[in-house]
Amino acid sequence: MTGYRSRSSIYRLMKRSQIPLPIMVGGGRVRWRSGDIEHWLKSLPTQSYR
User: Fold this and answer.
1) Which of 24, 34, 35, 40 has its CA 20 to 30 A from that of 3?
2) CA distances (Å), 26 to each of 19, 29, 30, 31, 34, in order?
3) Three-state secondary structure call for residue 31
4) What's the pLDDT score for residue 23?
5) Global pTM?
6) pLDDT tens, 1-46?
7) DSSP code of 27?
8) pLDDT tens figures, 31-41
9) Burial of 32 from C-beta contacts in 10 A (0-12 / 13-18 / 19+)
10) Phi-psi label, residue 14: left if phi above 0, alpha if psi -120 to 50, beta otherwise
11) Main-chain dihedrals φ then ψ at residue 30, nearest 5 degrees
């Protein structure tokens, strides 16, 4: 959904507070709320190509 393929890239963005933080769901697993990710994606700057 985000276009990022590596886990390290996602965690780097989390460390810089550039992506919403996940929630712990137990068993050492984390998940992101879809609404948080959708809001974050909509807030990213866009660029149009002419």
Assistant:
1) 24
2) 21, 6, 8, 10, 18
3) strand
4) 93
5) 0.69
6) 777 888 899 889 999 999 999 999 999 899 999 999 999 989 888 8
7) T
8) 999 999 999 98
9) middle
10) alpha
11) -125, 150
Per-residue pLDDT at 16: 93
d(C-alpha 50, C-alpha 40), whole Å: 25
Q: Which residues contact 13 (CB under 8 A, 6 or more apart)?
A: 4, 19
pLDDT on residue 44: 86
Q: How far is CA 8 from CA 5, 29, 35, 45, 48, in A?
A: 9, 16, 22, 22, 28
Q: Where are the beta strands (DSSP E) in the chain?
A: 23-26, 29-31
